[in-house]
Amino acid sequence: MIKEEKNIEPKSKDKKKTPIIVIKDLHKTFGKDNTVLKGVSLTVNKGEDLVILGRSGSGKSVTIKCIVGLIVPDKGEIKVFDEDLLALSKDELNKMRVKIGFLFQSGALYDSMSVRENLAFTLRAHKRDLTEEEVEKEVLEALESVGLGDAIEKMPAELSGGMRKRIGLARTLILKPEIILYDEPTTGLDTITSREISELILDIKNKQKTSSIIITHDMACAKLTADRIMVLKDGVIHAEGTYEELEKDEDEWVRSFFE
């Protein structure tokens, strides 16, 4: 277990671990004095699910949005697949994004499109050489992977919150990403549905060999999905360890997440 106020590099005695995301000394300020990130450093290894905890406004979502280029940091280094993300051209960044799935809190579905059209639109935007039959096959496979093959004709307004999250995840999976960034995947869901989504995250990792960062306030989700947990406080990584290690941490602020 590591507990410091900045620039934490996770410990690793296993030399076989392969870093797939490496962030060093990330800073981000909005406006004149709203400094959100003050030197965040972290590593995600291939095949690992890393959970990031923190109070609202601590910089969790800002950190993962920097990884896909939705937010540009003021300072720091981001390497994904050993490529300097901040040095990529627009075209290079778009190619990188295909390898990185992002599940937004809301699912971010297009309300005017059916479930089929939502998934097909995403697929065609990145794989324009596919035939209609190939698109249909990919859409069905993605929906089956989240257990919602029978929802293909539905409109987003007809879906429950849990179904919207699943469809959003199917739309992410249709491009077969190697990394998935989950932004509060269980927010707003009941206990049973939240557990189903958490189990689905695990299932995707095991079947598709993805690496993930999971932003969550849901400690049941964190306990079920996390290989490792990092806690953000005041714009830096404050603590790092397994669920069991942090649950017993002597730091009262860290333990408060587990009470």
From TrEMBL:
<feature type="domain" description="ABC transporter">
    <location>
        <begin position="21"/>
        <end position="259"/>
    </location>
</feature>
<keyword id="KW-0813">Transport</keyword>
<keyword id="KW-0067">ATP-binding</keyword>
<dbReference type="GO" id="GO:0005524">
    <property type="term" value="F:ATP binding"/>
</dbReference>
<dbReference type="Pfam" id="PF00005">
    <property type="entry name" value="ABC_tran"/>
</dbReference>
<dbReference type="GO" id="GO:0016887">
    <property type="term" value="F:ATP hydrolysis activity"/>
</dbReference>
<dbReference type="InterPro" id="IPR003439">
    <property type="entry name" value="ABC_transporter-like_ATP-bd"/>
</dbReference>
<protein>
    <submittedName>
        <fullName>ATP-binding cassette domain-containing protein</fullName>
    </submittedName>
</protein>
<keyword id="KW-0547">Nucleotide-binding</keyword>
<dbReference type="InterPro" id="IPR027417">
    <property type="entry name" value="P-loop_NTPase"/>
</dbReference>
<dbReference type="InterPro" id="IPR017871">
    <property type="entry name" value="ABC_transporter-like_CS"/>
</dbReference>
<dbReference type="InterPro" id="IPR003593">
    <property type="entry name" value="AAA+_ATPase"/>
</dbReference>
